Amino acid sequence: MQKTIQPKSEHHYHFVTGKLAEHLVRETAQALSKEHGFKYSIGVMPITVAALMTPRWLLRHLDPPTETTHVIVPGYLDCGSDALEEKVQICVVCGPKDCRDLAEVFGGQRLEPALTDYDIQIIAEINHAPRMSRQDVVSRAIRLKADGADVIDFGCDPSNRCLAIGDYIAGIADEGIRVSVDTSDAWEASEAARRGASLVLSVNESNREHAVDWGVEVVVIPDQPSDKKSFEKTIDFLSKQGVPMRLDPILEPIGSGFAASLLRYAETRRDYPEYEMMMGIGNLTELTEVDSAGVNLLLLGICQELAIRSVLTTQVINWARSAVRECDVARRMVYFSINNGVPPKHLLRELVMLRDAKLRPFSLAAIESIATSLKDNHYRVLADDHRLHLLSAGVHLSGEDPFAVFEQLLARSESDNVDASHAFYLGYEMAKATIALQLGKQYDQDQALDWGILTKPEDLHRIKRSSHHRDRRGTEPR
Fold first, then answer.
1. 7 Cβ partners below 8 Å, 6+ apart?
2. Class assignment of domain 12-106?
3. pLDDT by residue (tens digit) across 71-96?
4. Which of the 8 DSSP states describes residue 397?
5. Does the domain at residues 121-340 carry the CATH identifier 1.10.10.60?
């Protein structure tokens, strides 16, 4: 069990950790030392993940400095701290399992990370942009930038040259937004670059000679995803011509060589460590029928580990309609995770949208206690124990079907206070409670269900409805 100790300036704390979490433990220990005035040291054990330590293993490696007064070990060693203490003859304190909770050992609160830093650029594509009006494209670009996009990609129509492409590009650039162009047409790329585009997607053998004249950075792709030689030839050609570039081996969808394409990204990073890289993650999110948030986080985690510092995404299919916002949250999470050697857990909850990160259940005894303590006729809705509960003074109705619960209410002789407004309110709240039960979400009456980045706060309908009844009747609803 985690202990709490009273820090003193004469204490010296030796924090034990693994290699991955070393940076974060040092950062946390330094902040705590500054706050409490104690001295400290860090014992980085020859193991990657602290959770894999055992008391017996640590006995062979633990060697705290002679001035140590307390050894702080990870929470996974709570069952062996006595043996460790006997060996080192120093007070051994079993700390938290998550090093971000170290402040709790000293009676403080968890140090929440700022999560403001990231180094992955989001390129958000507007697909078939020439089919829209110039104003619609500019408006969409502004919204995407507000969602977190760093660059807006003007997606051309492969079947028709966009003769007005310069006006579109200039319209976006005039808003102070960085813009790229997605085209294989050399004229479109040249005109876009002339009017403000700073990046061209994409270049291979078919158009690489023209890229020399554009004067902007380009994304290099192979002629075919598995054609490594064509990829290398284009890279070599552009390198000799001094054209700035970022490399994209092309991410392929599941069913078309997804795993092999991931390996090509790792190989490209190994073979060309000096070049920036890009991953077109929309190839997976748009072609995989699943909510895109988890897919985006995993792909950005891969990008972060491989130093792929830009991703191309889009929001065409409905299940990926919030992809840019998801990527903005994900890039902050993976940056913190990989740079601090901790899993992307308990950092941000914005991408937990279908279910909730944690539930606060009521026991049946607690529900009964609430029911018997109510003295007014306002209805309370609870969702727990796989059932809906409707409570007020002298009333405790429950069931799995909200229609059945409402029928029980109407069957009661004292239910004459359920007018149309009240019925609508109860139906709305019980619908939310039913959804919460189905998905494993937390239901709190008069509060919006937590949909992560998609959550929209609700007004307090019950309070407004009660005020309406008081104004109309001059009394509380019965």
1. 13, 32, 36, 37, 38, 106
2. alpha beta
3. 999 888 876 677 788 888 899 888 88
4. E
5. no
